């Protein structure tokens, strides 16, 4: 008897619910709801950079395929921006425009990681990176870093989990979900470790412009020969629905990534690339300055109400709620939140954190977010 076709074992074990299995229940709730589990912004992109601002008469062919690498105008705008931000010499051949940073990281893992090889991931981490590694038949290896008290401890934590199968190290700063900004000496230590051990350094830069304390360090300026940096118009400019981002790295590596992107999403949406070029060459910096000030204010108010340190960057708070769990554990706490029209993300979505929750303080207007924070404070008796 012929066997029935099966599924990839690595994918079969993956969860299809990234943040909360309770999300669908919120839609049926009466009254104001607080969906603080989704990492997005409530603000629209800058005026002049929205889909309503682009017409076929002005951009004939905007509904056709774009070039696989990216549209020439956008590539040039990216090169100019990356050179200015990082100080690293960058050419078009080192850039690939992708379907968001998600597509960028998918191309990176698909191009650099063979089945069974390991990617060390600083944890807590953006949830999709673990799934992307798994989907490409690699093995994600979480490296918890919240308790590290310096670069030496961080390097020791990575070394402890590094085996002969390790080929890459992923870091995300400013960090989703913790709001931490890795100090420069920490990133320097990771870059040196990657160089000594022959690892690729995968640097997730999507919150580069949202730093409220400290300073953002670009890993690529420290180890350009082995760093692949991913960026996103989603977080930078409120364009999550456009699905446009990019990756910058060594020319030979980007050529391999382009093979993966061609055979997965082919090219990023043409209209989204038009919007991306316009925002980089126009109102992008002013919009970021306005958004960053708003995010900083809301994040600090939310943190103060919950009695935790303010976020150093990104758009999230990551709370240890172990002292507030009863016999129902974390699922019970999430149930109590839903009963109050509130959704937050469970810690295990971000790594080995069974007693944590994440909330996004930019997914709704500030006044709505802060009312949701007040609900959470009541549940946590703070």
Strand order of the largest sheet: 2-8-7-6-5-3-4
Order of secondary-structure elements: HHEHEHEHEHEHEEHEHHHEHEEEH
Main sheet characteristics? 7 strands, mixed
**Average of the residue pLDDT scores:** 95
Q: Which shape, going by the Cα principal axes?
A: globular
Number of helices: 13
Helix content: 25-40%
Outline the structure in words:
It contains 13 helices and twelve strands. Helix content is 38%, strand content 14%. The longest helix is centred in the last third of the chain and has 23 residues, at 284-306. The radius of gyration is 21 Å and the shape is globular. Strands 2-8-7-6-5-3-4 form a seven-stranded mixed beta sheet, sandwiched between helices. Strands 9-12-11 form a three-stranded antiparallel beta sheet, covered by helices on one side. It has a two-stranded parallel ribbon with strand order 1-10.
Tell me the layout of helices and strands:
Elements: H1 9-12, H2 23-26, E1 34-35, H3 72-86, E2 95-98, H4 100-112, E3 118-123, H5 127-135, E4 139-144, H6 151-161, E5 166-172, H7 184-197, E6 200-204, E7 227-232, H8 233-237, E8 245-248, H9 251-262, H10 270-281, H11 284-306, E9 316-320, H12 329-339, E10 342-343, E11 345-346, E12 356-360, H13 366-379
Parallel strand pairs: 1-10, 3-4, 3-5, 5-6, 6-7
Antiparallel strand pairs: 2-8, 7-8, 9-12, 11-12
Helix pairs in contact: 3-10, 4-5, 4-9, 6-7, 11-13
């Amino acid at each position: 008897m012929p066997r029935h076709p099966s599924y990839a074992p690595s994918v079969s074990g993956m969860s299809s619910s990234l943040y909360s299995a309770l999300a669908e229940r919120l839609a049926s709730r009466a009254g104001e709801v607080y969906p603080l589990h989704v990492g997005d912004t409530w603000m629209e992109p800058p005026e002049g950079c929205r889909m309503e601002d682009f017409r076929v008469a002005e951009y004939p062919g905007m509904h056709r395929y774009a070039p696989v690498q990216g549209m020439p105008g956008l590539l040039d705008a990216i090169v100019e921006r990356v050179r200015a931000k990082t100080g690293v010499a960058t050419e078009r051949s080192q850039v690939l425009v992708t379907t968001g940073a998600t597509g960028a990281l998918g191309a990176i893992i698909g191009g650099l990681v063979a089945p069974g090889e390991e990617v060390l991931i600083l944890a807590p981490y953006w949830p999709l990176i673990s799934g992307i590694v798994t989907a490409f038949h690699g093995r994600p290896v979480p490296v918890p870093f919240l308790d590290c008290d310096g670069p030496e401890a961080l390097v020791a934590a990575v070394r402890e989990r590094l085996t002969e199968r390790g080929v890459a190290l992923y870091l995300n700063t400013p960090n989703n979900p913790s709001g931490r900004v890795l100090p420069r000496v920490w990133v320097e230590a990771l870059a040196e470790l990657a160089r000594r051990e022959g690892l690729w350094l995968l640097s997730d830069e999507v919150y580069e412009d949202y730093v409220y304390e400290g300073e953002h360090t670009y890993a690529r300026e420290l180890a350009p020969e082995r760093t692949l940096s991913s960026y996103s118009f989603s977080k930078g400019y409120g364009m999550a629905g456009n699905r446009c981002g990019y990756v910058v790295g060594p020319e030979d590596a980007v050529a391999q990534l382009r093979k993966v992107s061609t055979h997965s999403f082919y090219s990023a949406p043409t209209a989204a690339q038009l919007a991306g070029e316009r925002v980089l060459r126009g109102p992008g910096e002013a919009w970021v300055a306005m958004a960053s000030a708003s995010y900083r204010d809301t994040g600090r108010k939310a943190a103060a109400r919950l009695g935790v340190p303010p976020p150093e960057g990104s758009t999230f708070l990551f709370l240890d709620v172990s002292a507030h769990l009863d016999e129902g554990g974390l699922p019970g706490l999430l149930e109590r939140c839903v009963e109050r029209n509130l959704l937050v993300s469970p810690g295990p979505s971000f790594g080995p954190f069974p007693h944590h929750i994440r909330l996004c303080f930019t997914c709704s207007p500030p006044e709505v977010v802060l009312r949701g924070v007040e609900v959470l404070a009541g549940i946590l008796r703070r």
